[in-house]
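User: Structure please.
Assistant: Input sequence and predicted structure:
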Amino acid sequence: MNLHMKKNLLKQLKYAPKIWSTVLYFIIVAIGMILFAARSLESLRFDFLLQLFPNYHQHISNFSITLLLVLVSGYTTTLENKSLKRTYITASILIAINVVYELYLPFINTRDIMDAYYGISGAVLPFLYLLPYQHFGIMHNPMYENNKSSEIEVI
């Protein structure tokens, strides 16, 4: 993708993220990925989490996958319209899928309510970041094409 195409993509976003919110977003993504990897790599497991939740690594994939899906959904849709409505819908659908999958599909999966609880928490926790991000972590995009005057640029 060349620079001209990137600039055109930026012109379509009504809002732009502030630097602090983007850095925090990538930190949360990294934590979610580390937690996911920790289910199979013992060296990545956190001792304080093992003390609080001794078997968390057995259920963490539901948490991590759901967290990342809701986080990405919220981050991107907020840049389009400063609304989390679609993200609430996404989180609700993921919660429903988690519960149905963990409780009612035993032929594909072992029934495990703890997996469902981890998935539910993975859908809810991203909003601790997304709500402040929605109000304080974005700004009007100066490159947004509707922000420009009706003057025609001469190249």
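The chain has a mean pLDDT of 85.
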